[in-house]
From TrEMBL, chain A:
Keywords assigned by UniProt, alphabetized: Cell membrane, Membrane, Transmembrane, Transmembrane helix
Membrane topology term: Multi-pass membrane protein
One Gene Ontology term, aspect cellular component: plasma membrane
Name used for this protein in its record: Amino acid ABC transporter permease
Organism this protein belongs to: Actinobacteria bacterium BACL2 MAG-120802-bin41
Top-rank taxon: Bacteria
One GO molecular-function entry: branched-chain amino acid transmembrane transporter activity
PANTHER family named in the record: HIGH-AFFINITY BRANCHED-CHAIN AMINO ACID TRANSPORT SYSTEM PERMEASE, HIGH-AFFINITY BRANCHED-CHAIN AMINO ACID TRANSPORT SYSTEM PERMEASE PROTEIN LIVM
Automatic annotation (TrEMBL), chain B:
Pfam families the record matches: BPD_transp_2
Protein species of origin: Actinobacteria bacterium BACL2 MAG-120802-bin41
Protein name, UniProt field: Amino acid ABC transporter permease
Family per record: Belongs to the binding-protein-dependent transport system permease family. LivHM subfamily.
GO molecular function, a single term: transmembrane transporter activity
Major localisation: membrane
GO biological process: amino acid transport
Tree of life domain: Bacteria
Topology class, membrane: Multi-pass membrane protein
Subcellular location(s) of the protein: Cell membrane
CDD domains with a match to the protein in the record: TM_PBP1_LivH_like (cd06582)
Membrane-traversing stretches: 7-29, 59-82, 94-115, 149-166, 197-215, 227-254, 261-284
GO CC terms, sorted: plasma membrane
Amino acid sequence: MESWPKARPAVRKKIAIFILIGWVLLIIGDRVDELRVYQGAQMAMYTIALASIVLLTGYSGQVSLGNGAMMAVGGYGAALTLNNLGTPIWFAFLMAIVTASLFGALLGAAAARVSGPYLAGTTLALAVGLPAIANQFAFLGGEPGLFFDVGFPPERFGDEFTQYKWFFWIASFIALIALFITSNILSSRFGRTWRAIRGNSLAAELCGVHSSRMKVLAFTVSSGLAGLAGAVLAMTISLVAPGAYGLALSFALVTGAVLAGISSLPGVVLGAIILVFIPEISVALADRLGDADKLNNYLPGLIVSVLLILSVIFTPNGPGENLRKHLHKKPAH
Amino acid sequence: MQKVIETLLIGLSTGSIYALMSLALVLVWRSTRVVNFAQAGQAMLSTYIGFEIASRSEIFWLGLVFAIAAGALVGAGVDYFFMRVLFKHATSGPAAVVAPVIATLGLLGLIRSIVGLTWGGEFKSIEAPASTDGFSVGDGTIPFSDLDVLIIATVSIILIAVAYIFQRTNLGLALRASAYAPEIAQLAGIRTARTRTIGWSIAGAVGGVAGMLVTSNNFLSPYSLDLLLVFGFIAAVIGGLESMVGSVIGALVLGIGLTFILNYVGTSLVFIGGFSVLILVLLIKPDGIMAKGKARRA
């Protein structure tokens, strides 16, 4: 607690920056067309999801290959809350975080506790089996999924205010808050501890860190963030269905996080922009190359995987890292 | 009683295919310390090649031979062109530990897209090399067929061959040595990098067989082997990821267990059953059934 007064100006500065970003987003949201506004909402969703990977992989050094599945947990949590209890939307989003964190804590207690590739495999298994699980329980709605309707924008915003803009507002607002909290967590004691474990878990334990407990905590927090992103995704497509949270989404998220620089929180914005535009680029390419059916189905995957492989081989710590190395001629860690 | 026995037999046949996949994963894990999630992709590519040959020549076994060859080549290629380059580049920084796993995920996606772009997404099927009609016992027939016998036989041959290579040949000795202590193996004159590539190619070949066998009474699509990968991984975890024998036992146990769920509870619970097994093993015996005493995992 002693460091609190010292930390305060930094936090205040951060708040100012986030409010500024929000204000800029508001202005941009008013100036661009419907499609871009919708893409803005998607971008906000991806920033939250990528932040969850940065926290887990970049800081605590664990890999989740099925973050899409954790997003699904959040999406279902939010949809069930909203549909069955008729709560306000903010409560549904809150429940998305709660459900996904609880689920993450349970899963993490089994898989994140032991080191090695267990968490990666377990989460991948979950992502692969998601449709099977959704079909199993009737209340999850099976293959077609559940509706998730956040409702029309409030009347006082006027007739001009479109549904997509409403999505964009909600998504950006949530993303800003989520990123603000995440960046504070990462610069707190927890963030430092996670980095210590990632660097050398034995050394961290000698310093009194309970490393397996901290790893489970990292996975829990990351799952909560992913769940929130899942609820935002559900909002933008008005639906929670296993198809939307499949392996392709998990692949895309890992790619985005690696491209963003796996341990850089501001980088997630770059990653999100790339992820939003990959489908668009791929459609443009498919149009040019012909044979639209096959290309539309597999070209996005091809682009994502090639980007992932190239970046993981040549700039595993993100393009920013390479640049920094180049400038300083010494490793940053 | 008859149902119990037939469930056991079917489970044995299913489990033996899982055994190949988990063996492939374990082989790579031992030599490279990477769980190769691209194994599903490699197996899929080899199976598609086997499918092409089998459907053109109408000889399943020719297809299988090509699938094995393709699997070996792809496995070696993945190690030679990706893993070696990767280990050369990603050596420092926060991503060093996680880069290999992420790379295998990227490879899985890459192979899937290439297969999808080449063969399209529609379901293909390979004509089974043996009858899929069940044996008749008394008045009825049981679902256990000639094909299942053939699957079990093929898997046994492959397992014996792999065991022979590892226990009785110089290559096997080199493979075990470089997995156990790479540096010492190198000092003893083993070219560990090359040995590792051979290990990857054996794993790839084994995975190719798994793909062909699982497709012989099922459909082939760019996604059809994902579940096999998951069950292979679960089996490998049961065996402790480290032990080849453990992974085979784990796969047989898993196959039989899941078939019991399938026959007595229903299709829908099979995946959840498998996933619960994974969680239980991680909670109770994270080092697997073959672990001797307590060892620290680095």
